[in-house]
Specification:
The structure is a homotetramer. Chain A is α/β, with parallel strands linked by helices. In chain A, about 50% of the residues lie in helices and about 15% in strands. The radius of gyration of chain A is 20 Å and the shape is globular. At the A-B interface, helix 3, helix 6, strand 5, helix 10 and strand 9 of A face helix 3, helix 6, strand 5, helix 10 and strand 9 of B.
């Protein structure tokens, strides 16, 4: 049995020390430190690690952190939604997202061509630039072959990007597949559609990506998941891994809770009833905004993994 | 300016009266009555209505209500996730989902082949029966043609179902398209994949469904959305409608809130910054579990619409 | 084992039927119907029932419903915060609260003397009228005796009110004590302070009210609680009842959840670890805004209790 | 206009750097960094600072941090609930609180005399020891005088404690008053009641504490509040300060939101409609569990304040 320890600040506290000391504070602080310890175990045991996140997190400054985690070898596969892809590409082409307010005048924003995501703003110009780039990109892909799975397509796009903070860039460079089961749900999808209007034999084969995600890992390997938020990113990763025997390690960071039965709020315990997470797995759930909890979990884990030489140089 | 009215119970209160009187109670009660009034307006103005929901709501008894709303002509298009499709088919084939507990022993449930969704249980046997049916279904589809959009496929399946509480049945019968942008994210997707392994030219064209959803409505028509929960169902409907000028009427029922920037918690105001909802639209957001709030909103709206002869006979 | 039933609407559905049918829908709908059944049991077994609520619910139209529940004999003791007392008195004197917006311009509201509680508005004039009345009220109390417990004081005030929708009126009339452990936390407290400035021997004895709440019930009696929201109202009722052996029946309706360790979000299970609720008690928790969930729970329970002749005529 | 910056980890990151960099990440990270900046301003401008918190935070390891903040001169007045007082005294007498699980078997815990607060456990033995100490404490107070305000009483108790992590100890030592408007709502209240049974003239004067809290600050002074969670602690501080013209600086850290109209979820904007916070005040609200967000806000603020020599040595 461990006991609550009084938290006190000292001037020279490192970020990892802070995160570690929250473990003895209680409530979600304790869950957070537990999550960090499970991430460490994932890498120590050589587990294949799935990282899943929603697109609003890529609107935020976590985008560069996801890229860094791929670069450091923490993530072996990524599952996300199409907004993440769009915004990673926008940012890689130099576009910036402004920090505004949750209580903005949305009428005025619309008038000036600004789109709000929580307290962050994306300009219509970023979408226009993205549209122009997509024309070139899809033409190049099509010149190569007519039918693409999503993960193949995202890899090709990643190879064209050079931004050191880009998720797709590091994913392509380090052979980390990026899955996006709802590829048509956004501007990317609209551009696929427009391109297909002029190239009737252009085809995105979402079914065959099932094979690619199954091949990411095997029944016998240790498997771990770091799952940020919910939605199809979360479900696709845990459902496909179920077919390979389920996860040995699971860390959920989310704002949702289970009372309304949503998958986004489904706990790691609920996942055990499905076999998505093994009964004897190490699992933790941290409730709170991921822009705060995820950096904290990871600074603690990275500090330890760096010390043990378990990060890719 | 309207004022708070003291709520009092009387013995002969109808369900619609209850919902209506909540409008003068305040807080979410007021939002709920406002949502009902907006749904009424949608139908009075002849707006095309999109109904979106997540699969956990189909696990619940709202499934039959969604089917009834299609039958009554309230919904002109449906967007959902693939779990909804799977579970509607299971239920249509006679399977039942048990009511259990949020605090179940998930280890024990897993041992006995029971999968938990909040406080509801789905048996492995229901999935097995579904798997067997999918083999036959996909063979029949393939015999007809090799490449399918998702909405075409779901319509064909709906035509084979006869359960009067089935969403797909009523959707097919009344020519209400069902869109499912992440069709591979679940057991249905796995069976598509298995079938494709043996039939290499079997193809699901998710890109072409973009055309179908755009054709559901036009720039000049009034458009409304009843959006339950978040995720890709919500985003696909509002994003594609944006391309047709955005919604005139919008009702969001959700448990999520905007502080973490998720699309699921994004408000109707945020949607206005994007043009997804028109600046001068009628919009309401009700925070709470949809299993409670949605029936309340709709009993009020249906009572009025029935009185005005605006429901399909 | 019970099973999910497809919810369908029919024209003549009563409010109680609606609430009852939610029990077979799942998620919080199921909890809601369970809560209604437990309230019925409380009255069938002759349990003493504590009703606790926070002051924002009295700002809302639930105020008149609380009064009606006291009148109908559903509640045997009330615990609340001082804002409830203030606003019940304001409303009893004819003041009205306006229905506004959560997204109001609070600067403009302040300029015009309007105070916001969620989407409800209380005018400065209502506070001024309350202040004037308090002067007279306290003088009358003081003329009677110098030291008062809170529940005695609220009973005397209730006897002076005649509004049929007033909580204090019906509580006084039916000998239902109203406890308010933080009596100084609001305008009422400020007026007590101002009065004491001029009458140094005027004393509010909060300690002696402990005896009164303990005497509301005995160790041997059945005890039930209907607990709306959290805070001191909730804690005072469950803590004092613990001293009498804990509750046999407990229904919590709240928006808070347990992940941050707050009492407001503490579950009925957590209460069992303290003995606040008996291990073998009937208990249910419904998550959601009480302006919606509470009327639903109660219309179902009241319909049954009326049919069984268990309501006070 | 500032822009989102990609967060990246580096080995030597201090805790303050981490918190600072979250400001450019977005969503609640941005609010968090804003909150830290406002706390800095409070001290730079010489504002009187109110610190309010709920008792579950004193169950957690934040207890020692609150004590440290008083010691460092960050807080000039404290408002809390009675559980905080009880548990600070227990801990000061050597009792420990165990770290357990949110999903504990509460029946088993009750059997073994363990009381759960979220994922933390308090033993019955700690309450028994507290009971014994209270007898002596109250006798000593009574020997001194018969009538006490709460803040006077808590100061006397604080003077008897020597634990360097005790809130009451540092508050008494540094003349920081501790207000507790609902002093009878817990075991402390029960012991007051038992003592009064034997000493009929023992009186706790809650009304006169109103004067003490009003005297903490003046209309002309700058005033700031750091408000953790909601309930009476929050309301008492902002209501009484309203009488002195309202706060110039306000930082709210909470898990509650405004949709149900509760005071706990009331925003700093809503507070402006009441004049509780000045229209032109600096205000920030961070949504999330305080065990995580509060240390982050403060490590950033303390780092800056230390550098500027604005902390008490």
């Amino acid at each position: 049995m461990s006991y609550v320890k009084d938290f006190t600040w000292n001037k020279d506290m490192t970020a990892g020390e802070l995160a570690g000391s929250l473990g003895s504070v209680g409530f979600q602080g304790t869950e957070l430190a537990k999550a960090a310890a499970i991430v460490e175990k994932m890498k120590e045991t050589g587990a294949k690690v799935f990282l899943t996140f929603t697109s609003n997190m890529v609107t935020s400054g976590l985008r560069g952190f996801f890229a860094q985690l791929i670069e450091l070898g923490v993530a072996d596969a990524v599952v996300t939604t199409v907004g993440s892809v769009e915004e990673d590409i926008m940012r890689a082409s130099g576009e910036q997202f402004a920090i505004g307010s949750f209580a903005a005048n949305d009428f005025a924003l619309h008038e000036e061509g600004t789109n709000r995501v929580g307290n962050l703003y994306i300009s219509n110009k970023s979408y226009e630039k993205f549209e122009a780039a997509m024309g070139t990109t899809l033409a190049a892909l099509y010149a190569h072959k007519k039918t693409w799975t999503v993960s193949e397509m995202l890899r090709e796009i990643g190879l064209t990007l050079s931004d050191p903070h880009s998720i797709l860039h590091h994913a392509a460079k380090h052979n980390v597949p990026v899955f996006c089961p709802a590829i048509t749900d956004g501007a990317f999808g609209f551009h696929l559609f427009m391109f297909q209007q002029d190239h009737k034999d252009f085809m995105v084969d979402v079914v065959r990506d099932f094979q690619h995600i199954l091949e990411c890992t095997s029944h016998d390997e240790k498997k771990g998941i770091i799952c940020l938020g919910g939605g199809v990113s979360k479900h696709y990763a845990i459902f496909t891994c179920l077919l390979n025997g389920g996860f040995d390690y699971a860390v959920y960071l989310t704002t949702s809770q289970q009372y309304a039965g949503s998958l986004s709020g489904a706990t790691t315990s609920e996942a055990k009833s499905w076999g998505k997470i093994k009964d004897d797995s190490d699992a933790a759930t941290v409730i709170g905004d991921v822009t705060i909890t995820f950096p904290l979990v990871m600074v603690k884990a990275l500090e330890e993994l760096a010390a043990k030489g378990l990060l890719r140089q």
